[in-house]
Amino acid sequence: MAALGAVKDAGGGKIDFPPELIAFIDEWKVKPGSLIMILHKTQETFGYIPRPAAEKLARLTGIPLARIYGVITFYHFFKTVKPGKFRISVCLGTACYLKGGQDLIEEARNILGLAEGGVTADGLFSIDPVRCVGCCGLAPVITVGTATYGKVTKDQLPEIIAKYKNG
Ligand code: FES
Questions:
Q1: Residues 120-158: tens digit of each pLDDT
Q2: What ranges do the domains of the chain cover?
Q3: Per-residue pLDDT tens over the stretch 7-54
Q4: CA-closest residue to ligand 1 atom 1
Q5: What backbone phi and psi angles, to 5 degrees, belong to 25?
Q6: Which CATH number fits domain 86-165: 1.10.540.10, 1.20.1050.10, 3.40.30.10, 3.40.50.2300?
Q7: For residue 16, how many other CB atoms are within 10 A of its CB?
């Protein structure tokens, strides 16, 4: 196992990893199944996994870039595009799905003119389907940043979105 200092970027990368991330990689890269953990930590750090970060991970871990992208693209959880400033998470857990979660996603995309996985041109909004967020009694549920909205109807979406758009 390389010493902590030895895993620092040898150059060529266009992204700085904070020391905590470097330390995490150094700790995890020798363990089985480490790539998923490392990718989670990287996404937690940047909000997504930018290409330079994936390239740097390949250098730091010795894992081929193609394999890293294989995992990133297999799991929908991982993002390769920077999310919007306001991430609208629409719950598609069973309760929310049965109460129209998918309709909320489609309506929010219509309102914002977004394709799946897209970000608005002003960088403000992106929409993510998510699993149960733990308040099924309020289904269907969406979250925007740290705010949670329950029993949401399609009619309420313009007002919720406007609240963030207008600061
Ligand atoms: S299914 Fe949506 S909060 Fe549980």
A1: 999 999 999 999 999 999 999 999 989 999 999 999 999
A2: 4-74, 86-165
A3: 444 444 479 999 999 999 999 998 888 999 999 999 999 999 999 999
A4: 93
A5: -60, -45
A6: 3.40.30.10
A7: 12
Whole-angstrom distance, CA of residue 37 vs CA of residue 34: 5
**Ligand 1 pocket mutation, candidates 90, 141, 148, 149, criterion most atoms within 8 A of CB:** 141
CA distance 41 to 154: 34
Take residue 50 and report the two structure tokens written for it: 């930018």
